[in-house]
Amino acid sequence: MKQIMFMLSFVMVMLFALPSAVQAQTYDVDYKNQTIEQITKDLRKQTGYQFVYKKETVQGVAPITCTLKNATLEQILNRVFFFVGLDYEIAKGKTIILKKADKNRPYFKKQVSGLVTDENEDPLPGVTVMVKGTSNGVSTDIDGAFSVFVEGNSPELEFSYVGMKSKTVRLSPKTEKFLMVQLENDENILDEVLVTGYQNIKRENATGSYQLITSKKLDERHTGTIVENLEGQIPGLMSYNNGLNGGGENALTIRGISSFQAKTNPLVVVDGLPIEGSIETINPYNIENITVLKDASAAAIYGARASNGVIVVTTKRAQQEKLEVDFSTDITISEKQNYDNYNWADAAQFIELEKYNFNSMLAHDPNSMESLLNYYQTYRRAISPVSRLLTAKYLGELSDSELQSQLNRLAQNDYRKEWANAYDRQRVLQQYNLALRTRGRYLNSSIVLNYKGDNMGTVKEHNNALTFSYRGDLDATKWLKLSFGANIISERGKSHISSEVSGRNFYAPYMSMFNADGSEAPMEGYIGLYEPALENPENGLKDPAFYPLQELNLNFNNSRRTNIRSFASATATILPGWTASVHLQYEDIYYKNNGYKKAESYDMRYLYDLYTQSSVEMVWDYDPVTWERIQVPVTTITHHIPEGGQLTSSTTEGAFYTFRAQTGYSHEFAGKHAVEALAGFEFRETHNKANTSLLIGYDEQTQTNRTGLVNLGELKNLQGQASVLGPRYSLYGAPDSRQYTTSDVLHRFYSLYFTGNYTYDKRYSASFSYRVDKTDLFGADPKFRGRPLWSVGASWNIHNEDFMKQYTWIDALKLRASYGLTGNIDSSVSSYLTASLSNESIYGNLGASLNTPPNDQLRWEKTASWNLGLDFSLWSNRLSGSLDYYLKKGSDLLTVTDLDPTTGWKQLTINNGKMTNRGVELQLNGQIVKPQTRNSLGVNASFNIAYNKNEVTKVNHEAASGMEYLYYYTLHKGYPVHSLFSFQYAGLTFDNESHMQYVNWRDHTGEVHTSEISTDDFKIEDAVYSGTLDPKVMSSFTPEITYAGFSLSAMFSYYGGHVMRANVNDWNSNYGSIYGFNSGDVPVSALNYWTSGDPTQYIANGYMGLSKVVGYLNVRYMDTNVVPADYLKLRNLVLGYSFPSNWCRKIGMNAIRLRIQMNNVATWARNKFDIDPEANSPLNGTPINKTPRSYTMSLHVNF
Amino acid sequence: MNNKIYRSFVVGALVCLCPLFFSSCDDELDIVPKGMTTLETVGDLEALLNQEYMLISEPCANIGLICNESLGMFMSVPEVLSQQNTIDYANLTYDEKVDRATLTTEDQRYEDCYKYINYMNVVISKIDDAVGENTYKEQYKAEAQLIRAYMHWLLVNIYAKQYDEATAEQEGGIPYVDNTNAGEEKTKLSLAETYQRILEDCSDEVIAKLPRKNSNVERADQALGNAVRAKVLMQMKRYSEALPYAQATLQLNNAIEDRSTIVETMSWSLAQDVESNLLYVGMGIRANPTFEALSVETGALFEEGDYVINYDLMGGWDGTWGAMDTGVEGALEYNGWNTRANPYGVVTDRMYYVAAECLIRTGKIREGLQMVDRVRAKRVENYEPFAQGNPSEQEAMAMLQRAKWIECIGSYENFFDCKRWNTEANYKRTITRNLGSYGTFTLRPESPLWVLPFPANATRYNPTLTQNY
Fold first, then answer.
1. Helices (H), strands (E): how many in chain B?
2. Which whole number is the average pLDDT over A636-654?
3. Which residues contact A584 (CB under 8 A, 6 or more apart)?
4. What pTM does this model have?
5. Mean pLDDT (whole number) for B182-208
6. Measured distance CA(A737)–CA(A802) in Å, rounded
7. Which residues of B touch A575 (CB under 8 A)?
8. CA atoms of B56 and A948, how far apart (whole Å)
9. d(CA A746, nearest CA chain B) in Å
10. What is the pLDDT of residues A120-158, one digit of tens each?
11. Rounded CA gap, A578 and A571, in Å?
C-alpha cells in the first residue's frame, strides 16, 4: 500500500508542480441581440481595451448574438465583428480601432490563421489545411492553430483529418483573419482503415469480415489484460474458461473451435509480423488499434496459421511535431476472496460429522472399528484429531467430560480463517505508463516505459514487470522509409512453492495454528509427532512438526522472464504506386525459475527424516569380561538425503526469426478502376530450448551443495522401503533423475503469398489471395509439405449506386461475400517413423520408444469458410453496424484414428476429422443523443451478439466403452466438440443387509442398474447428451452517457446456450474415512446423510464412503448435476471525467482524464443452484475461486 | 529517371528471385528433431532393444484369477458378485455364459505385446541397411527375433487354446506379425503355424548368434535363448526336446534367489536386475506381488517354513488386508514394496522347474525332484527334500506342482501350466474355488474361460481375428 501511496503522490506532484505555461488570457462572452455599443462596453470591462470608432461605422449594424467560452480577445473580435461587416485593428496602448470592411475588394490575398477544434472544442493538431485547387497547405500545430497564406478569387480552404468529416470554408474579403473551424467526427464505418498486417485497406474496398477496435475504445475501461479488454468488443471473439484450456489468452477463440488437437487460439500479429510471445506481451497502453480478421478473405493471407482467425495489433506512433508526453496510471484493488461459494463445513459441523461417523461405525461396522483401533495403536497419524479423542474415550482413556471439554475447545477454532489471515491479502495491481513521442522531419520516434506491479493477493508474493519499447520511423530518402524498434520486457516474480501441507485445507477447520497462549503450535504433518523413533537422539531426526507461519517465509519460486522483440523494416517506392519492402523480426524469450526449498522448511525436514533408515549388523567384538570373541549387534543410522535445502532450476529459451520480403502495387486508372496487389515471401524459424536441474543439499548462504554425494539410482531402489520412523512410513518423494531434463525443438516455415484487390467505381470490389506454406513438420513427402490456401471475396457498396441517392438516410450500405481456405497445424505429429530417446530406468542405457506410426499422408488441416456480411450506417451515422453469417467447415482435421492394435499401433493421428462451425454475428453502434457541445448530454450505446453452433461431423475413434464415451476428450460425431455426456441418475438404493449403498442409473431402455458406470455394464447408448461446454451465444451491451466532461458507462456481458456440471461436491462420498475427517475441504452438505438418516436420499461419506458405496467414483457424470451455464455479468461500471482542455492548457497540459471503475459488479446466473459459472469448474462441477469484485482508479495525463 | 529505372530493375529482379529461393529452401526443411531419431543407425536401433519391458495389466487381474491363484487386486468379491455382466464376474464365478468378447473392449496386455513385436520388427527390417558397424547387426537381429518369439508365445497361450499336436492344425492361433506395415491386415494363423513361426524365431541358429552371457535383464543372451526355446517346447508338451535347452540355460546361468536372507532383513527384497532374471518383463505397478490377494486355496499351499510368510514383516502376506480388500476371510494379500518378482519375464529359478518337469516327464524322477529341491532350499527353512524314496511320476508331479505354484505367484506361469496340464489325461483338474458364504465355484478343464477373448478394438478392424474358444 505504501508503494501505491508513493506513486500516487509522485503523480500528483508531477501534475501540479509543473510550471503552468503562460497562455493568452481568455474570456467568456454571451451576447443576445446586443448592440455594438453594449458589446464594446462589456469587452472594455473584461479586457481593459479601449474601442475607437466613428459613429457612422456602427450605424445600421444589426444586433449581435454570440456565445464564446474561453476565447482569446482576437477570437472574440473575429467572431463578433466579422458577421456585421466590420474590420478591426489592434493599435498600441490597448486600443482597438473599428472600421467598415471593404466590401468591394474582389481579390483575396492575406495570411489566414485560425484554430481547428473537434466537437468538444478541443484543439485538433495535425489537421491538413489545404487551399483548394492548389498544392498550398499546412497542418495545424499542437494547439490546433494554423496560419496559411491565401490568394485568389473566392478561394476555399479545405480542412481534413482522419476520422473527421472534411470541411470546406469559402474565404471572402469579409472573412476575418482568424478562422474558428470545428470538425465533426466522421463515424462512417466505410472510411475506417483496416490493418491486415500485410497492407492497409479502406473498409470501403474490403471484401472480408474485419472488425476494428480503436485505442479510444480500449481506453474506455481498464482491465488487467488485453484479453479481458477484448471481452464483448467484437462479436465472435471470445475467451471463455470452459475448464479445458484455462482462461485468458489460451481460451481465446474466433468463431468457435476449429481444431481437435491443434492450437485453437488466433494468430497474433504486431505491427505486421506474427509474434511468438503471448498477446499479453504487448503493452496495452501502446495500442493504436486492433483489427480482427475473422473470415477467410480477411485471414487467408496468413495461410496455414489462419484457421483460428488473426488479431492484428498496431502500436501507437507520434502524430505531432512536438514532443508529446502521455502518462497513465491504473491502480486496481480487488476484494479478498471469502470462499463462501465452497460451502465448507465449519469446526462445529466437522466435529458433528466426526461423531456421526464414529458412532455409526461403532454400531454397524466392527471390521472397520477393528482397523481403527489397530491404527490407533500403530499409526495414529492417519486418524483425525477428533476421531482420536473419540477412540480414546471409547477405550476409556478419556472421560466423558474431558472429551466434551476438548471438543468444545476445538469447536472454537477456525483454521481456514487463521490461514487466510496469514496468507491472503488484498490484491493490488498497479500499472504506470509513460510514453514520449515526437515526429520530426525525418524521424518519428516513440519511447514507452511501462511498469506493472502485482502483489498477487498473497503475502510475500509479487509479480512485477518493466517494459521498455522504442519505435522509430525514418524517412531516409524520398523513396525509402525505414522503421526499427525494440520491445523489452523484464519480469520478476516470487511465489510460494506450494505444498500439500501448507494448503488452506490440509487441516480440519477445528485445528488451530496457535497454542492457547497465542504462540505458534507445532502441527502434525506427515509424521506422527508421537513416533518413538523421534525420541531416540541416535536417529538424528529433525523436528517433524509443521509451523504454518514460519513456513510462510521459507520456500519460494523466484522467476524471471525477459522478452525481447526487435524489428526492422524498409519500404522503397520504386515507381509511384509500386513499393517493395523487407521486414525482419527477432524475438528472444528467456524464462528462468529457481525454486528454493530451505533446509529448515517442512518439506526438507520431512524428507530428511523419512529417508532415514536404521539397520542392525552383527559385528565381531571382544567380550569386555572374558575377552572372548563374540558377535554384537550394531545399529547403523543412514540418512539417505543429505542435510540442506533443494534448488530446482528450470530455464526455457526461445529464439524466433521472421523475415519477409514483399512488393505491392496500388493504382487508380481512369478514375474508376482501383487496383491493389501484393506478393511476397516469408521465412520463419522457431527454436525452443528448455532444461531443468536440481541441486540437493543446497545452501544459499554458503553457496554449497551436496548433489555429488547423492546416488539417485540408489535412492530410486530404496523407494517403498520402510523408514526408521516405522513400517507405515515408506520411502517416497526423493529427488530422482527425471528432475534433470533438456529439450530442443526447431521448426522452419517458408511461405509465398499473393493478394489482389480490384474496385470499380467505388461500387464493386473483388479480392483474391493465395498462399503456399511449407514446413519441416510434415517430414517425408515434399508433396504434402506445402498446400495452397486461397480465398476469393466480393463486395458491393450499394450506397454508391445512383438509385440509392434518394435514400438520404442511408449513409453506407455494403454487402460482402467471401470464400476461402485457411490452415492449421499440430507440431507434435510427424510423417516419419521416429523414436524418442531416453535413458531406460534399469541400467540407464540409451533406450528408444517409437512415437507415431509413419504417415506419409500428413498435411495441413484445412478450414473452408463462407462469409456473407452487411455493413451499414444510417441516419447520419446515428446507427451503424454490421451483420455477418458464416459457415466454417474444417476438414483434414488431425484426429486420432484407431488401428488394429495387432499392428503394434493402437492409434494413428491422421487428417481425417471434420467439424463445422456456423453462426451469426451482429454488431450495432448507436449514437442515441449526439452531444452538440461539451456541456450537452450525449448518450450512446453499442450492442453485439454472436451465435455459434459447433458440430463434429466426422471422427474415426470410437469410444471403447460407455465410460470412455463420457470423457470430455472423447469426440462425439453429431455433437459439439466439447460435449458433456452423462448417465441418467436413477436414485440411491440401500441394502440393509450388506449396508451397501448404490448409485443407480437408468439405461436407454429404462432399466435401472446399480453397477459402477465404469464397468462394461454401462454401454455407449446409455449415455445421454447434456449440452456443450462452450457458450453458443455471447452478447455484450455497453451504454454510455456523457455530460460536461463526465462519462458514465457500463459493460454487460452475457454467455449462454451452454451447460456445466455443478454441485458435484454434494454428491461426493469420499469425504472422511474410517479414520475420520482429516482434510478441511468437506462441504457442509456432507452432514445431510447423517442428519437425515435416509441413505436413499443422500450419498454416504465417512467410513461408508469409500467401501460401502457402489458408484461413488463417477457421481460427477450424473445428468441431474448438469445445469445451464447461462449468465449475465455487469463486468464494469466506469465513471470518467475529462478536464476541460482550456483548463488543462492553463497548467500546461493537453488533457487530463480521471476514471473510477468498479469491476465484476453483479452477476445473474440461470441455474437452480444459483452458482456463478465463473466460480465453478464446468467439467468437475466443483467450486473455484470467484472472480473478485475490484476497483480501479485511473489517471491519464497528456502534455 | 535513370536512377528510378535502375531501382526498379534491382527490386524487380529480387522479387523475381524469391520463388527460386523458395524452391531451394526445401533442404532447410529437412530437420531431424532433437531428442528423437529416425532410426537410421545401428546405434539407434540398438536403443530400441534397450527396453524396460512392461505389459500394463497385472497377471493376477485375470489369468491369475482364472487359474485360482489369486482373487485379483483390490477386487471386492461382494461388489463383483453384485454385477453379473462383467469380465470379473465371469472369471470369479467361472460363469461361461457371460459374453466376454463383447465386454473386452480393450486389452492393454495384448496391445503392449504387439507393440514390442513391432519394435522388434523395426529393428529386423532396418538393421541391414542401417549406418554403422556391421559387427553387431546379426546379433541385434537375433535378439529382436528372440523377443519377437517370446512375445508371440505369451500371446498364443493367453488368447488361443493350449497347443495339442492332434488338433493344432485346426485350432486358431494368433497373427504372427513379422513386418512394420501398419496398413496391412495381420492375419490370424492356425495354432500349429503360430508355434512353427515361434520356433523359427528361437531356432538354434538364432540362439547361436546371441551373445553367450550378458547379465542384462533387458537384452537377450544365449541363456535366454535356450530358456525361451525350452519353454516353447515344453508348452508344446515336447518334454524330451525341451530338456536340453532348459539344461543349457542353467549351465549358462544357475543363479537362484536366496530368500533365507529375509530372516535377517525382515523384508523380501528383489530387484529387477538380479542375476536370476534372464529377461525382466514388468507390469503396471513396479512392485510384485504387491496388492495381489491370494485365493484361500493358494494360501493353503505355502510350506511350513516359507521364509516370506514367516519372516517378511514389512510387506508380508497379510490376512487383514486381504480380508478387507476382497471381503473373503483367509485371503492373504502382499503389501511389500521391495519385491519386484518378474511377472511376464524369464527367471532361472523357474527354469529349474522347467528342467525338473521335463526330467520327471521323461522318467528321471529323482533328478527332477532334486532340481526342485535346489530352489526349495532357498525358499523354505529346514526344508524336507522331495527327492527321497521312490515316488511315481504323478506323485513327483504333485510335489512339483505345489511348490511351483507358490514359486510362480504373481506371474503368468501358473495359468500356462494349468492350461497345459488340462490337456493331459493324468494331470487335468477341475478347479474349485471356495468363497465361503459367497459360494463355491468350479472351472472345468475344457472351459472356454481358459482362452481370453481378442479385444474388440482389434476384432473390429481385423476380421480374421475370430475368437479361439
1. 21, 13
2. 94
3. A567, A568, A569, A657, A658, A659, A660
4. 0.80
5. 94
6. 78
7. 4, 8
8. 42
9. 7
10. 677 787 788 888 767 777 888 877 888 887 777 667 788
11. 10
